[in-house]
Protein: MIA2 protein
Organism: Stercorarius parasiticus
Amino acid sequence: MSRILDQRILLLVISFLRSLQSTKVLSEWKKCGDRECETAMSRVQATTDYLGPDCRYLNFKTGEEIMVYSKLSRKNENLWTGS
């Protein structure tokens, strides 16, 4: 029983470390308003309606104000985080 528990804990730790590593890589490609990406870096107004494919994306209508907290840099600068 304890061996199974040890294996589950090890698997959990490995999973956590992998997610940290992927977050670190993504953060190297982000431009933010501050170190923690908590301060808005710009305020934009939507020029078109957008309905995201799932809950990870913002939905907005033309004319709505969006606060931008980070933008991906490098190849695709069209991906922003905001509210």
Remarks:
- The two ends are 46 Å apart (CA to CA).
- Residues 30 and 72 are 4 Å apart (CA to CA).
- The domain at 2-82 is CATH 2.30.30.40 (SH3 type barrels.).
- The helical segments are 2-28.
